[in-house]
Fold each of these.
Amino acid sequence: MEMQSMGRRETLSGKLIRAISDRIAAGQYRVGDRLPSEQEMIEEFGVSRTVVREAIANLKAGGSVSTVQGVGAFVMLQDKPSAFEIKETSNLTVAQEMIGVLELRVALETEAVALAAQRRSETNLATMREALEEVRYAATAGVYTAEVGEKAAEADIAFHRAIAEATGNSHFLRLFNYLGEYMVSRSRLQTFKFGGGPVQEYLERTIAEHERIYQAIAMQDTDTARAALRLHLAGSRDRLQRQIAKYAAR
């Protein structure tokens, strides 16, 4: 596993910390287990001894491991789980992470949109309509720019945030706010460049899918709202997966 081949936005020690933390979380390294020796990590990850020592020091400072001089580093029992966080690395890794976020959103928002359909107010509907019109405006811009793309992404997220708000459940809204801010970063990546179709086509499809969701919520049709929301997000996930595959094959 060559660490230098990964994205450039993380330091080598940061990548090693993430790799070890992922193995601890997955149970590959259990509480009380001794981590591989420095030399084993050097050989497996292709990094220097300094990088290994820096990573272990950071893990120790974070309470994930303890060290015994002359023996090695051991996995410690965590007092509490880490806060939910999505970390960005290389552009391709971020795009792959977005697939996971979309899958999480399908589960979260499918139920949120049903509650929104039951509980929405006229004010909620007005907020959704305003966000939808912002995306529509971006689609009529004529010439696509990074600024137009970011505004369209923000309006897209604003529409979904309005759905979360319409549930009347603050927990849905708080979690969506975190996920939504992460997804806005896709406008900075301009993920359509991963091999997707024309931007105009993407925006028009987004408008049509949002319109179906909006109409179902307005009519308080929970089943149709669920189906339209699932189709929208699952379709976005599937398109991104195809785009990543094309990008990686270049």
Amino acid sequence: MNQATSTDTQPKASVIISVYKDTEALNGILYALERQTEKDFEIIVTEDCESEGMETFLAEFKNKNNFHHLTQPDDGWRKTLAVNRAIVSAKSDYLIFIDGDVLPNKNFVADHIATAEHGKFLTGRRVYLGPFFSKVLRKYPGFTRVLENRFLFFLLLIPLHLDKVRNYEVGLPSRFFQWLRGKKLVGVIGCNFSCYKEDMYAINGYNEDLPGVGAEDSDLQWRFEGLGMASKSVKFLIPVYHLYHEHLRHGYEDNLVIINKNRKAKAYVCKNGIIKM
């Protein structure tokens, strides 16, 4: 990792990566971040456990400028806490969020920064890769160079389709498509969105009262909107490539019960978030 910004200078953005033990995927993510066209950003790897494997893997990065690794006891699924802790530690005024199972396009950071607006949160999307191409990308992160090439990506559409790729159109970033369809709003997903730090503090971050997996990101959206902030879609501008895995939604319905109750009460600022009220 070769970040250009010194530790005594505020970076343009903080890239927050929530992870859980998957060092192979994180290796690909860090490779992709190394290739970013924008170099002035910090990386915060926030781990929802204290994995020895992750600690060993990240040892070589610990002395890098603008690289931080946060851990917490492995006490069930607590991504909301892990991300809130990263938000507090962020040095930048602008926050970019990805999950530990997506590899960003080389212009990912630059485009998020260039498209940022105060009072708005950017909502991107992901290309869902199938099992075969996910294995390729895990073993050879440099394959992102192929996916980023519009011509090569287009040539791969048939094999990608056979591998059950979804949202393939996201992998063909186009300002024309963004102009044509970008006004159609898309919801917040934790693997590709960004906002100003002050706006995240306004809603008090992620709601740590949500016990399950799922809907914690959409919970952010209605609370943002409740305080007058607006969604800004970057679906056709800023892609990430999602690695195939089985989806777990344990406790999703429990989350919805809490979220719906809060929505009825118009509780836009959560009580158990960045600040404990």
Amino acid sequence: MGLLIPLFLWVAIPAVLFAPPLPLRSLSSPTESNPVTPTPAPAQEVRESEEEEEIRKPVEEKVVRATLPAAHTPAKHGETDGESWVAQRTMVEDYCGWGWIKKDKESWRQARWVALEGTAGICPLPHTFLPRPEDDKNYQYRFYGTFAPYRAYEPQADVWVDVFILKGFMSLGPAKEEIRRPPPAQASSGVNRFAERGANFR
């Protein structure tokens, strides 16, 4: 073992000292890959892409229609045969339900506050056609459908409300005036508070 180390040094040191120098690498070496510069597109292709992206100005009449409330609601949708009701969309803060519904000869004092349920594949709710659900506030419709054999629970007021199953509707446009009648009376002591008594199962 003692002889191997001097032997190794005697062979390795001259090999390192007398080795030929490495060639210097030049900056303009042909082996380096030059970055490829993209060639500009022909002028004709640029003009064609600009023509495709041309922005067409909307017709003035369409702009006015789009700003009207409930402009996107179809005038008629679903099954519009059989018994009908007049309905008015009413929004009440912190209160569920869709609005009021009544027969033609009845007054709005006789109307019923309803939760509205669409019929899958036949008729969705009218406000689903709009950007926001409240866009058809105080709009009137002629509804076709039936009252459900069940009721919906309104948690803020702790009451049960009637459910109308919608099968079709016709838009009657904006109502002449807002219905100021409040929905079914609150049993809770205040808005956004749970009722202190149990639910009314009727």
